[in-house]
Amino acid sequence: MEESGKFANFAGRMIEQRQMTPEEKALEVRILTEQLMAAGRKDLLLKAIGVPLLEELRIEAAKGKLSRLVITDDYRFVLEDYDRMEVELQPVHKAVYLLFLAHPEGIEFKRLAEYREELLGYYLKTARMMDKEKIIESVDHLVNPLDNAINEKCSRIKKTFLELMDEYTASYYFISSHTQKHFAGRVWYERLKVITLPRELVVRRS
Hints:
This protein is α+β, with helices and mostly antiparallel strands. The chain contains 9 helices and 7 strands.
């Protein structure tokens, strides 16, 4: 009887919630969150929210302080909402950055050779005055899984953004690691590199 009573009470609350406004639901969530926090049950709160939603909420919370990243037709990178501050990068770093911007799903370093032509295209655009043979040679180093060139370029990009803003904000702009777990008869992992900046904040401008 006790279990059936609990179920009936839960079902009644579900019906009530369907009749609540979004604002009323948000208030109830806040109250329940405060109760769980007071009880020291952050574990239950995290389980209820889930890690993917938590990451979405983190991005949403950060949007208010993130700047639009404007990419001009001559490939200058400008932080529009931070007093039009320019991100000073060499053409090769800009080419790497443009590649990862174009792939919000992320890229594994070991699979960079699959993106060779795309990366070469970006580099040819950002370094119009450079010798084409040198550009091709540089790209071959970048996509070689036995070469450390790509790590060096990403470290330089990260350092540049860290010089312009705090670490939390910069983490949305530089190329960072994201491990994705998969199940397909066995467990395997994709060690992706991504730029987590919401793409609606990336602006191409002539």
